[in-house]
UniProtKB/TrEMBL annotation:
NAD keyword on record: yes
Organism per entry: Sphingobacterium humi
Lineage, top ranks: Bacteria, Pseudomonadati, Bacteroidota, Sphingobacteriia, Sphingobacteriales
GO molecular function: D-lactate dehydrogenase (NAD+) activity; NAD binding
UniProt protein name: Lactate dehydrogenase
UniProt keywords, alphabetically: NAD
Keyword Translocase assigned: no
Occurrences of domain D-isomer specific 2-hydroxyacid dehydrogenase catalytic (ranges): 11-99
Entries under PANTHER family matching the protein: 2-HYDROXYACID DEHYDROGENASE HOMOLOG 1-RELATED (PTHR43026)
Pfam families, per the entry: 2-Hacid_dh
């Protein structure tokens, strides 16, 4: 998948690159996701965000217009994402609900991307608010 990761800390870069193992076309930037940086998401299928990135209706719609179909937050919380509106836009959303070490977050993030890439579901990390055949298969 073509992916842009926002709000990347220097120490996260190594873990994400190692977990990715060149499977996904992954661009890492330290800037947060906002209206000055959203253009970096053009042509990407997914965005990786942190809890510092606010994805309200306006931001989600702008990402949707750029072609983004999937969002992964590198946090347990999803309070910074309007999950209902993402569902209306048929955008997949996942978090990282397990161990919160940087290495584990990186592995969970890449695992979610890979599951989506092969047509699967993010399982316990799935935060989608839409009907999805893949999610129903898990139930």
């Amino acid at each position: 998948m073509r992916v842009i990761a926002y709000n990347i800390l220097d120490q996260e870069k190594v873990f994400l690159a190692k977990a990715n193992a060149k499977v996904h076309d992954l661009t890492l930037i330290s800037n947060g996701l906002n209206f000055s940086t959203i253009h970096f998401a053009a042509g990407k299928e997914a965005v990786l965000v942190s809890e510092r990135d606010i994805l309200d209706k306006v931001m989600l719609f702008e990402l949707f217009k750029l072609g983004v179909k999937s969002i992964i937050t590198r946090s347990k919380t999803t309070d910074h994402i309007d999950l209902d509106y993402a569902g209306e836009l048929k955008m997949h959303v996942a978090n990282v609900p397990f161990d919160q070490s940087m290495e584990s977050i990186a592995k969970q993030t890449i695992q979610n991307l890979t599951q989506w890439m092969v047509g699967g579901c993010a399982g316990d990390a799935c935060q989608c608010r839409m009907d999805c055949a893949n999610k129903q298969k898990l139930g």
